[in-house]
Amino acid sequence: MTIDTTTAGAPTTGGAGGADDELARVPAILRQAQTAHDEWSALPLERRAELLRAIADGLDEAAGTLIPIAERETGLTTARLTGELTRTTFQVRLFARVVERGEFLGLRVDHADADWPMGAPRPDLRRILVPMGPVLVFAAGNFPFAFSVVGGDTASALAAGSAVVLKAHPGHPELSRATLDVVAASVDAAGGPANLLQGLFSQEAGVAALTAREIKASAFTGSIRGGRALFDIAQSRPEPIPFYGELGSTNPVFVLPEAAGARADSIAEGFLASVTGSQGQLCTKPGVLFVPTGSPVLAAVAGASSTGPARLLDPRIEANYLNRLESLRERADVSVLWDDDASLATPPSPSVLRTTIDAVLADPETLVAETFGPTSLVVEYTDVADLTRVARGLEGQLTSTVVGDEGDTAAAGPLVQELTQHAGRVLWNMWPTGVSVTYAQTHGGPYPATTAPGSTSVGTTAIERFLRPVTYQNLPDALLPEALRRGNPLGLPRTVDGVREA
């Protein structure tokens, strides 16, 4: 079976020996992953953190090799890739800190209680989160470092104690191989397990791994079509497994009247910067901007200088983008607000289209749908109440943004309440591009933003995706994990009889 696992359907390529040879090697790769997992998950937390830092150090030291490869394969700028690699290694080190602290283990101890008021004695119960098993990660194309080989999915799975098998993205195969080599050398030099992170390069091998019994969870960043197909495979296995897919988002922005009148120029500037950054190839790009009819924001956008043409990630993404843009421009209820002569060229310049809220309410599935690339749709409205109507009909989103001033607060209340039902992150007076890697972050949302709305793929709680709870009842200390033993010998945070201990 061949499944499109890329952002826009780019073809995949096999490894050095070809797709057939790689497919034949999948069983051996998975056996090696299981062996690595057994060793990795048994390491003390301090040792696991030490090896994560060794991976981060190795990537930083290899920047002079990796960044030029990434620039050549993706067309992204050196500055963008340098910042992305910094984000990637920061993320790995942040997870190392989380591992050391041990809070992610969710330790809970309930001592035996003969007088437990439920009507029967309570036994001694001790709960811990343990790694599920080897994890299969499908890399993204638009972030060749931060959502690829050692991106958030891989980093969080490793932090959880899982070995990882990576399905590399076809848009940057040379970079993927080079990054895998850096990780292997870094782990080996630090005395870590062999085969902790292994790569696959063909679609066939990736799908075969997804169906294999050794794989206990999977993560994906890419298109709705590809992600849904893989999700269905993961759920139809004899042993279904969790599949954490980030699939698509339009990230609507709602500009309220007072802000539109007072800050038109700054709103337009921030909007265009968010739309055109990385040529609009970001999952958090604001794809729809709602503004009051006749708002000065419209004139400010229309009068902006073009940023000029720039290459997209690969030819298939570019072709799909241009087809989608042309189909929107051909609609009678859509007009062009901002573009230049190269907006439909190869490579394209950014553009912004314009429509009305009546058109959106009549055909939301077409107009409020993700366009992966450097364009967005500005929607004019006359009644603030219509914004809540639009929000009520939204599919799941990674982000939703409200731009307002003090006088807009009352009108914003019902809108924010509605957006909370549809988005993983709700913003006020900030742009959704730029996802901070931190403790309280949520990069997720209801379907089709993700296949698992209770999870996040960015931030420290991403580690929870690859853990499952186990409770030990009435076991002697010698048979318990050290973190659950009496006296708390590791000094880790635990909840004891319902009370949080330091």
TrEMBL record:
Keyword set includes Transferase: no
Low complexity compositional bias, start-end: 1-11
Region annotated Disordered, chain positions: 1-20
Pfam families in the cross-refs: Aldedh (PF00171)
InterPro entries in alphabetical order: Ald_DH/histidinol_DH (IPR016161), Ald_DH_C (IPR016163), Ald_DH_N (IPR016162), Aldehyde_DH_dom (IPR015590), Aldehyde_DH_Superfamily (IPR050740), ALDH_KGSADH (IPR044151)
Molecular-function GO terms, alphabetical: oxidoreductase activity, acting on the aldehyde or oxo group of donors, NAD or NADP as acceptor
Domain of life assignment: Bacteria
Residues of the Aldehyde dehydrogenase domain: 24-444
Gene3D superfamilies, per database record: Aldehyde Dehydrogenase, Chain A, domain 1, Aldehyde Dehydrogenase, Chain A, domain 2
Keywords: Oxidoreductase
Protein name: NADP-dependent aldehyde dehydrogenase
